[in-house]
Design brief:
With 236 residues, this protein is of the alpha/beta class. The protein is 38% helix and 19% strand. It has one domain: Rossmann fold, CATH 3.40.50.10420.
Length: 236
């Protein structure tokens, strides 16, 4: 039956078109990638690319959780999983601050690093803004392979649009997520959490301290970074 209110097919078409354009530019920059219609397709592929015994490090990513990748790795018990942001059912972090910092440093020497990304540009750039840098550092150097998983909704026109969206939308929402869901009360005082708007603050717990734009890789590192784009609205 004809349904004017259901635009899922049109959105899927648009997601595929924009993703394939971004992926073409990534390959020119020696970054590999694939497009998937669903989280399940991405999950199957990513798990298949992680060999038994490989040490896997994780960045804090809503998308990885939505795609079920971290949970599946934990359930199959074939890999050592370095997840500094593992949480109890109530949202509290499993590790204390000192242990989490030690694990963050170990992630830099993992075999495979899994993360989401704040934004993907149409011309094949990865744009991220971090509070501490532990999420972006392994993207740049350290792990032998980097798997970036993102919803197609993270694709934007250019770097300028990416930074604007991250600061205006993603950072305030992410800071509030930590404050509410993870009981990190220190974030409640951030100006963006109080107002919903970036104030370019100098707060002690500012979450926008390191802006990283990955524009490509050297030929000797071709295929180290792999971008998996899913045709769904994922992450923040």
């Amino acid at each position: 039956m004809f349904d004017e209110t259901n635009t899922s097919q049109e959105k899927k078409w648009h997601y595929r078109q924009t993703a394939e354009q971004a992926l073409r530019h990534f390959r020119r920059r020696h970054i590999e990638g694939q497009y998937f219609d669903s989280c399940q397709e991405a999950l199957t592929t990513v798990l298949g690319l992680i060999p038994e015994g490989a040490v896997v490090g994780c960045g804090d990513s809503v998308t990885l959780q939505q795609a079920g990748i971290v949970a599946a790795l934990r359930d199959r018990q074939r890999n050592e999983l370095l997840d500094p942001f593992e949480r109890h059912e109530d949202g509290n972090l499993v590790m204390d601050d000192d242990e989490r910092l030690r694990v963050m440093r170990r992630v830099l020497t993992s075999d495979i690093y899994l993360s989401g990304t704040n934004a993907i540009t149409m011309d094949g750039r990865l744009v991220n803004i971090d509070g501490r840098g532990n999420r972006v550092a392994p993207m740049i150097f350290g792990p032998e392979k980097v798997f970036i998983v993102a919803g197609a909704n993270k694709i934007v026109k250019n770097v300028e649009e990416a930074i604007r969206h991250i600061k205006d939308v993603e950072a305030p929402v992410n800071a509030r997520r930590h404050a509410i869901k993870h009981h990190r009360e220190m974030f409640n005082d951030l100006p963006c959490v109080r107002t919903g708007v970036c104030n370019d603050c100098a707060h002690d717990y500012r979450i926008c301290n390191a802006t990283v734009i990955i524009e490509g890789a050297r030929i000797v590192e071709k295929g180290r970074i792999n971008v998996f784009i899913i045709g769904e609205d994922l992450g923040i």
